[in-house]
3-methyl-2-oxobutanoate dehydrogenase (2-methylpropanoyl-transferring)
Amino acid sequence: MAHWFGRSRTITHFLKTKIISSSYRSLAGDGSGKACGIFREKSAVIPAFRRSESARAGDLVEAVTYSDDDDDENQGLEFPGGRVTFTPQMKFIAESTDNRVPCYRVLDNNGCPIPGSTFDQVDKETAVKMYRKMVTLQIMDTIFYEAQRQGRLSFYLTSTGEEAINIATAAALTPDDILFTQYREPGILLWRGFTLEEFANQCFGTKDGHGKGRQMPIHYGSKEHNFFTVSSPIATQLPQAAGAAYSLKMANKEACVVAFTGDGGTSEGDFHAGLNFAAVMEAPVMFICRNNGWAISTPISDQFRSDGVVVKGQAYGIRSIRVDGNDTLAVYSAVRAAREMVITEQKPMLVEFLTYRVGHHSTSDDSTKYRSSNEIEQWKTGRSPISRFRKWVERNGWWSDEEETELRKDARKQVLNAIQVADKTEKPSLEDLFTDVYDSPPSNLVEQEKSLRETIKRHHQDFPSDVPI
Ligand SMILES: Cc1ncc(C[n+]2csc(CCOP(=O)(O)OP(=O)(O)O)c2C)c(N)n1
Ligand SMILES: [Mg+2]
């Protein structure tokens, strides 16, 4: 039982073992899970790709059935979407149930697989890579955040506490899957090979940054890595993701779109438009909500009265699952299973990760003004996804204290180096402000460029000296 924002919630390994037993084998003898009791893993084989078929769905999905076996016209109505039975009782659907949707979890707080839990076994190479990337992301966040505090960057925000969601999701996808993120998911790019220099160049707005200084820091994007550029207005990426997924469907691609939103993003109309579009068009898109408790200073209790976000899937006819977002193995397994269903069945999916935003919303925020330091500390130290995963990796004999020291030293050096280089790199030239949108610039842009150049000439002391004119 874990307490999550004032209400008790059962965390369970609830993908039913009876259902998936045929594809699961005993782990006995491979050394993992030592001293953690009995558990079972699923072999990592994905069935061959097939269109519009039920993959593991029949196994993993709990159907809600209502009795409709009486054919009498007075007993029911054939209606678009399926037969609806009549009832003489005037009954309202309850706004909520006492039993909240349980949360799929594999590793307990000590990094031990929960007995009976079912998950995709991760091999040593992948597990160590995941752990290394989670730590690198944490170090990048710490140093970039400090650089902002020193006035070297205009803005930054961290993914602290949400490293498992970032990295394990990325690891569960393939490079062909297209990402539409919110902004707290840079770990996906890190996993895909975006370099620390590229992160630094974007944040420092250098001439080498992919956006040529035209976006705020942390608004990353990469065509090479199938990662659409982050966009500030919350949730606008969700209907776009539904459209992009529909294009994959039309092209018969064996890939899906993965679209992220925060809990706050679900209060935007675009969240609802995106989900409904995807459901109706049967678009292969996985919507992922990082429910981290806060939308800047607004707690989730002021965002919605439903049982979180997961229940909204069913309202739109979208399959959904709630997952412990601080459990790397649960995130990895759930995203892999969801991806397989999304692609094979050509339908959307909603995944709600329960997690916590450990850092301030951004460098423009001081979260101690609206939440207690105890709450932050509890999540920072007691529920860190990195510590939990490390315990599991160590227990498997795949990681040592020496490797930990080396990794942290090395990552710190690389991040500092990337920052130092970016800090000294030239800014993009003024003309870049006006390029890359139109083949031939419209007259109003030509006018604006001329006017800007004249203004700089007149008031050069008010403009940055390091921007080539
Ligand atoms: C349409 C729109 N409204 C408001 C904002 C200001 N804003 C930026 S982030 C944010 C909170 C988003 O919270 P959430 O979706 O939970 O993401 P988190 O920061 O917790 O990761 C708000 C309100 C915005 N960027 N766009
Ligand atoms: Mg949030």
Notes: The chain has two domains: 2-65+97-424, 430-462. The radius of gyration is 24 Å.
